[in-house]
Amino acid sequence: MALTTGLLIVFLLYSLAPTWFLLVSSTKNQTDLYSTFGLWFSSNHLGDNLQEIASYHDGVFLRWIGNSVLYSTLGAAGATLISLAAGYGLSKYEYRGRGALFALVVGASLLPSTLLAFPLYLVFAKVGLTNTIWSVLIPYFINPFGVYLGKVYADSSVPTELMEAARIDGAGELRIFLSVALKLMRTGGITIFMLDFVNIWNNFFLPLFMLNGERSFPVTLGLFSWLQQAQTARDMNTLVLTGSLLSIIPLAIFMFALQKYWRSGILMGSLK
Length: 272
Prior knowledge:
GO biological process, one term: transmembrane transport
CATH architecture: Orthogonal Bundle
Domain ABC transmembrane type-1: 65-257
Pfam families: BPD_transp_1 (PF00528)
Shape: globular
Oligomer: single chain
Order of helices and strands: HHHHHHHHHHHHHHH
Number of strands: 0
Helix content: over 70%
Family: Belongs to the binding-protein-dependent transport system permease family.
Radius of gyration: 23 Å
GO cellular component, one term: plasma membrane
Number of helices: 15
């Protein structure tokens, strides 16, 4: 018991250390950042750093935050709807090749997204969609792991008997899905939306390949561009650290707001 508790404490400290470092570093100016202990405070320059990051390049950082919110919200919403519909189809309909299709979905979910970034770029460059919002949204809409979760939640939350009763009452298949299945799969849908939102927010390689205009960058790629600039021009490390801290605040708010849904949703999937 003591060993388990000790390991959990070590894991907790390991997990919180980067966030603590960001919080401490965001309160320092350039001089204190290099001359003081990295894990403790010195003089407080957080207000100055926030003012500078909001005004630098006409407030481009705020534009990056807005882009990340847009990409993550639309991408996660589209991926959730497609995942629930595909998972529902895999779960509730009998047709030839269903097992092979499900195996293909599981196999595709094991592929790392970074491996697909360059092939996707070649495809979108061929059709002239690079450096557009669609070049990042369309790949986000397709999430094999979300389809797998959609099937799991459909198996556990949509009774076949209820579907049969709806058919007897004259409801079509689309109406059954929209009016019955989606409502029953709401908790699972929120869980899939949350996972997709966080994944899209943190995604780096796909925007790196697809976008080349600074105004269209998400916050992850924008901070990376500042870090690259720091190697050739002014030292941007303070702004990058402060921006990194600010970039996790929307995710924290999002997670706390939906915690009662994703906890029950993950529990439902694990029980299945």
